[in-house]
Amino acid sequence: MDAEEIQRRVRELEPWVNGFEYGGVRYAEGSSHDYLLSQDPEGRAEAFFAAFPEAGRILELGALEGADTVALARRPGTSVLAMEGRQENLSRAELVVEVFGLTNVELRLADVERLDFAELGAFDVVLCAGLMYHVREPWTLLENIASVAGGLYLSTHYWGTSEGLDALGGYAVKNVREGHPEPQARGLSVDVRWLDRPSLFAALKNAGFTEVEVLHERVSAEVCDIVAACRKEVVR
Ligand SMILES: C[S@@+](CC[C@H](N)C(=O)[O-])C[C@H]1O[C@@H](n2cnc3c(N)ncnc32)[C@H](O)[C@@H]1O
Fold first, then answer.
1. Where in the numbering of this chain does the Methyltransferase type domain appear (predicted)?
2. Do the bridges between strand 191-195 and strand 105-109 make them parallel or antiparallel, or are there none, so unpaired?
3. Which CATH fold topology does 35-231 show?
4. Are 123 and 52 spatial neighbours (Cβ–Cβ below 8 Å)?
């Protein structure tokens, strides 16, 4: 596909959240979005494979426009099954994967809150980035992830204080109404729940992720960020 053809197909799928770069050209610049997701996909893939060098078969949840999908799938020896809940995002991700000529990627439309994970098969590692704070039962999502993979690369928000939270399912939860600045990046559910830090770690442990290596953390009184490599058991 030449640059003109890519440009034409990119325009058909506007507005994009992030766009992408291919062959030295930046596509989807100037779309009508006013919010850019900040994570650099190449940097995330580097950190992902540093934590999980053995990752071959990868499940990605909440793929958006396929930026992380491509960064992961460009690594030799990998295959990626990427799930995305919005058809418009999925169509953009399909174009990006096609442009990069990747044949080791499968993209599927799916709501991770309703998905039967048992039908997906087994994976080495799951990438769950920017998704866990968009669901009603984050602990169920973690259990489902643990049912299909031994490793989890998690990037999420958690709630910074335990005060005033509700108790649900044994966890402390902050009830949150979806309000991500970019509508295309919001959860499919409107009312979702954030865990506080102790509950996040308890939910990981209850799901079977007994080893949690914190790779990055930004703590505040309210919205906190954490990136962690989680393993069901330590293989030495
Ligand atoms: C904040 S974006 C994160 C995108 C990307 N993973 C990242 O870290 O940059 C959340 C993505 O998850 C998708 N999503 C939200 N809720 C979902 C659900 N229940 N099932 C599947 N995808 C969902 C959104 O459509 C969006 O593409």
1. 59-148
2. unpaired
3. Rossmann fold (3.40.50)
4. no
Task: Give 235's Cβ-side CA count (13 Å radius).
Answer: 10
DSSP 56: -
Cβ(85)–Cβ(150) below 8 Å: no
**How far is residue 2's CA from residue 22's CA, in Å, rounded to a whole number?**
11
Statement: residue 173 has pLDDT above 80: yes
pLDDT, tens digit, for every residue of 64-105? 999 999 999 999 999 999 999 999 999 999 999 999 999 999
| Cβ 65 under 6 angstroms from ligand 1 | no
Per the confidence metrics, is the pTM higher than 0.90? Answer: yes
Planar angle of CA 31, 32, 36, nearest 5 degrees: 75
Spacing, Cα 235 to ligand 1 middle (Å): 30
Query: What are the residues whose beta carbons fall under 8 Å from the beta carbon of 88, sequence distance 6 or more?
Result: 13, 184
Q: Is the CB of 129 under 6 A from ligand 1?
A: yes
Cα angle: 117, vertex 120, 126; to 5 degrees: 75
Atom 11 of ligand 1 has which residue's CA nearest to it? Answer: 62
Ligand 1 centre and the CA of 130: distance in Å? 6
Query: What's the gap in Å between 67 CA and the centre of ligand 1?
Result: 12
Reported as a single tens digit per residue, the pLDDT across 108-150 is: 999 999 999 999 999 999 999 999 999 999 999 999 999 999 9
Check if 89 has its Cβ closer than 6 Å to any atom of ligand 1. yes
The ligand 1 atom nearest the CA atom of 39: 9
37 CB within 6 A, ligand 1: yes
Per-residue pLDDT, averaged over 194-209, amounts to: 98
Ligand 1 centroid to Cα of residue 47, in Å, is 20
